[in-house]
Amino acid sequence: MTDTICYRDAYARSCEATVEAVEATPEGLLVRLDRTVFYPGGGGQPADTGTLLALDPVWGGQRWQVASARRAGEGIVHVLSGVAAEDGPEPGLRVRVDIDWERRHLLMRTHTALHALCGVVWRDYGAQVTGGNMEPGAGRMDFEFEHMSGELVGEIEAKVNTELAAARDVRVRVLPREEAFVIPDLIRTKVNLLPEGIREVRTVEIVGLDLQADGGTHVANTREVGRIRVTGYESKGRINKRIRLEVADAP
To answer: Helices marked H in the chain — which ranges?
Structure first.
């Protein structure tokens, strides 16, 4: 099992690790490490990108670009695109693992902004989430709204920015399943995406606004997000409306 540091410390940018396995596939060279700071993707948040640096002097400081990362069984594999097996790292090699921090932090700000959006919409309009996705600096969320208008979207945007400016702490906890599922409205999505057999549930709380199950990375306080701007809205069905947003420059 890979020690996935990002789940307990979203601000960790680098770590040292040992290569456990390497596999050549059409996707690229898959490198499994004993620990990593890479987020492997999921819940609408893309996987991190970054580099692996060989620490053994024999390798002459060789560095590999990591195009993505994903779960593979109980481990995390790092995808080295366009690297031949003979040119990649070998099992047993010590490496330094570095993520593209600017990209990650922008994703963290975006993810927290989407949770603030979700919190406002649930609190003030009682609408469940039917889908969502993000990229660095922008994202979209779908809600069970029957009607949507520019006036309503403007109202929501103003409320979200008020909550972000309130400098609310963002807290991450891991709870036993039995304890987590007594929390009212923990699952905000129309469909419960948590596997039946899961024994622990990771929760993300924007204190005083939002609390829900989530596996992604977030900033520690809403003031890090800055402001958001709603860039559009559209109908995706009779009672399914999409809101798109962008994250402005950090304060």
So the answer is: 101-125, 150-165, 177-180
**Could you give the CA distance from residue 151 to residue 157 in angstroms, rounded to a whole number?**
10
pLDDT in the model for residue 194: 54
What's the whole-model pTM score? 0.92
> Hey, what domains does the chain have and what are their CATH numbers?
3-99 (2.40.30.130), 104-247 (3.30.980.10)
The per-residue pLDDT for 189 is 56
14-25 and 28-33 beta bridge pairing = antiparallel
Which element (helix H / strand E) includes 132?
strand 129-135
Query: What span, in angstroms and rounded, lies between the C-alpha atoms of 173 and 188?
Result: 17
Residues whose CB is less than 8 angstroms from the CB of residue 51 and which lie 6 or more positions away in sequence, other chains included: 63, 64, 65, 66, 97, 98
- Per DSSP, what are the bridge partners of residue 160? none
Judging by DSSP bridges, how do beta strands 35-36 and 3-4 pair with one another? parallel
What are the tens digits of pLDDT across the range 223-250? 999 999 999 999 988 889 999 999 987 6
